[in-house]
Amino acid sequence: MSTNRKVVLASRPEGAPVPANFRLERAPMPVIAEGEILVRMRAISMEPAIRGWLDDNDKNYFEPIAIGGTMRALSMGQVVESRLDGYAPGDFVRGLFGWEDYTVANADTVLLQKIDVSPDMPITYYVGVLGGSGQTAIVGLDRIGRAKAGDTVAISAAVGAVGHVAVQYARHIGCRVVGVVGGPEKARVARELGCDAVVDYKSAASMEAAIREAAPEGIDVYFDGVGGEMLDAMLNNMKTFGRVICCGMIAGYNDSDNPPPLYNAWQIVARELELKGFLLYSYAEFVPAALATCIDGLRDGWLRTIEHKRIGLAHAGALFCELMSGRTLGKAVLEMDLSEAD
Amino acid sequence: MSTNRKVVLASRPEGAPVPANFRLERAPMPVIAEGEILVRMRAISMEPAIRGWLDDNDKNYFEPIAIGGTMRALSMGQVVESRLDGYAPGDFVRGLFGWEDYTVANADTVLLQKIDVSPDMPITYYVGVLGGSGQTAIVGLDRIGRAKAGDTVAISAAVGAVGHVAVQYARHIGCRVVGVVGGPEKARVARELGCDAVVDYKSAASMEAAIREAAPEGIDVYFDGVGGEMLDAMLNNMKTFGRVICCGMIAGYNDSDNPPPLYNAWQIVARELELKGFLLYSYAEFVPAALATCIDGLRDGWLRTIEHKRIGLAHAGALFCELMSGRTLGKAVLEMDLSEAD
Fold first, then answer.
1. Per the CB < 8 Å rule, is B272 touching A266?
2. Do B210 and B204 meet the contact criterion of CB atoms below 8 Å apart?
């Protein structure tokens, strides 16, 4: 255990990232100082937000990653050495860590948190169904959408990291679920997950008509991670007093200077809708219960999670590129191979 | 008291209505049947919604008014003869009545309600500050906007029927108020009403910049009856967790087939905003308290109401045309001249 490996940014992507934008490097094993912990990385969460850190501009929450700098992501790891109060070897920790075999964290590390890992749960789940994605699904439906038995709930990206949990939870609490997906394979999976109806936006001649056909009585709750045209089509299909959980507007992410316009805002008044922005970190008090719900669901069997998983640090760059191509189903996650680099 | 007078639709307006679209006619005094009341009209509320009933299409809540048909509006009157249980001569009633000296109503008349008129309050107030406009202002700010002391509240059409009440109530409960108006005269009145800052959208080079200058710390609550460009500019000026009371989107009323697009919907997510459609009739349980608040305000002096008032049925058509020109301040109301037609 004398060397570390890490994935660095080799070049900035133009548009969609390609594997050549990333490079695996050897590096000396880090030595921790007072107030730090040394963490063996276990699972790395691949998320679209990372794409923003690869551009050299000031439009993001975090500073851009430098050329040659170590890639980072929300990740799970296990403490191997600690000089930080409250952390001991063996503790599982989650936080914004580097894409590397061993990483160093301290009390200022973004989102650093000790995690009580259940022995029957795979470690990768803690950056997916038992992490932000699962909790976003549960808290969003419960607290923002106020979804209840009998409601018709529409879910964008219904087989995505958040969506596939939301579909199953909505079904579990007695909702009728309309899944929105792109393409026949995703439509098939959405039906397997329990969607009562599926709208494939890639094949629908009119999204508005396709939603109407899927939910002739209208939509009570729309879980929206997409915005743009899909949101517009949904606004014309909402029931009076319908709620829209606005947790992302991906339709505008690739060209933030030219966001897609919304034409049907008048429906907010006419149908007395509620559109509410939702970012999980503002609802920390509801996270423990949401986590417990997901653990229960996995154990009881009403919830299953889909992972798009690769094993081994060398695949991290390629996995991120797959995610950004829009072809992955469920949660994209890299699991570290513990036989490597030790 | 042997003849009645009424205002009928002489011709359908093209675009903005003109006085020649309306005609005052003599008619026989109505004779009521069992289950009906005869009502002496006292005050007629002029509202933009009436414009929709003048077009011969099916886009409205109510059927269009026929050529030669009696104009109608939310109005106050006094029962002079009753064959309807629960109604007695002398009772004040509000409902969707005809523009006429005497009108006939029954249990099915839209919005028919007995009104307890305070002797110190002018009858016209009951279709304005003590009617839907005042109650929309209070319930909207309290229940939808959850405005509280210390909040910065922006109000569109700040010297309009709803807006001028909202401005004064927001001040009364300790908010900082930014009024949005069109033109220097309205700006002057908005300041007189107590606005801490005024944005004149007709003279502002950039609405977004003008709002930022008026509220550098951002907006907590936006009372929006306008939609379109103004809402877009406001979205970029809202504080995190800001609330938008969506009670009208007039910007799109004149051309409902081509609504003005909204470009900044992404801010709903980024700023975790809440946009909520609001129509007063869905909040009936809060109306009595809102009415009491307005009566208290008028008596205590923290609230004064602006009426754009004409007296005499013959002026009804011209008054409606004034309202639709956008030049009126406060509540446009026709008061009946009781010396006429008796």
1. no
2. yes
Long-range CB contacts (within 8 A, 24+) of A232-237:
A232/A208, A232/A262, A232/A263, A232/A264, A233/A206, A233/A207, A233/A208, A234/A154, A235/A262, A235/A264, A235/A265, A235/A267, A235/A268, A235/A271, A235/A273, A236/A208, A236/A264, A236/A267, A237/A154, A237/A208, A237/A211, A237/A212
- The arrangement of strands across the sheet holding B176-181 comes to A197-200, A176-181, A152-155, A219-224, A238-246, A274-277, B274-277, B238-246, B219-224, B152-155, B176-181, B197-200
pLDDT tens-digit series, residues B216-242:
999 999 999 989 899 999 999 999 999
CATH number of B132-282: 3.40.50.720
H or E element that contains A324: helix A316-324
Q: How far apart are CA A220 and CA A148, in angstroms?
A: 10
What tokens does A318 get?
């390629």
Query: Contact at 8 Å (CB) between B92 and B114?
Result: yes
Q: Which of A118, A192, A132, A136 is nearest to A159 (CA)?
A: A192
Average pLDDT for B317-341: 92
Which of B246, B248, B274 faces A276 most closely, judged by CB atoms?
Answer: B274
Pair of tokens at residue B106: 């029954």
Residue A326 CB coordination number (10 Å)? 14
**Residue given tokens 């002489």 in the structure block:** B10
User: Residue A124: phi, psi to the nearest 5?
Assistant: -65, -25
Distance from CA of A251 to the nearest CA of B (A): 10
How confident is the model over A122-167, as pLDDT tens digits? 999 999 999 999 999 999 999 999 999 999 999 999 999 999 999 9
What mean pLDDT comes out for the span A213-241?
96
Q: What is the DSSP letter of A143?
A: I
CB A152: neighbour CB atoms within 10 A? 25
Cα B145 to chain center, whole Å? Answer: 18
Contact yes or no for A282 and B272 at CB 8 A: yes
Residues of B in contact with A264 (CB under 8 A): 259
Maximum CA pair distance of chain A?
66
Report the topology of domain B3-128+305-335. Quinone Oxidoreductase; Chain A, domain 1 (3.90.180)
Q: What residue segments make up the domains of chain B, in order of their start?
A: 3-128+305-335, 132-282
Query: Which residues of B fall within a CB distance of 8 Å from A276?
Result: 268, 272-275
User: Does the beta-carbon distance from A271 to B259 stay under 8 Å?
Assistant: no
d(CA B329, CA B185): 9
* Gap between the Cα atoms of B129 and B293, Å rounded: 10
DSSP state of B174: T
- The SS3 of residue B338 is coil
Closest-approach residue (CA) in chain B for A231: B265
Alpha-carbon torsion angle B182, B188, B191, B196, nearest 10:
60
Torsion of CA B203, B242, A259, A163, to 10 degrees: -170
Of B227, B272, B282, the CB nearest to A277: B272
Contacts of B248 in chain A (CB under 8 A): 269
Q: Can you give the pTM of this predicted structure?
A: 0.92
In 3D, which of A59, A99, A68, A71 has the Cα closest to residue A254? A59
For B259, list phi and psi in degrees, rounded to 5: -65, 150
Contacts of B270 in chain A (CB under 8 A): 277
Two tokens at B68?
Answer: 């030669």
Closest chain B C-alpha to A260 CA, distance in angstroms:
7
Q: Which of A49-58, A231-240, B124-133 has the lowest mean pLDDT?
A: A49-58
Q: Does B132-282 match B3-128+305-335 at the fold level? A: no
Cα B98 to chain center, whole Å? 18
In total, chain A counts a number of residues equal to 342
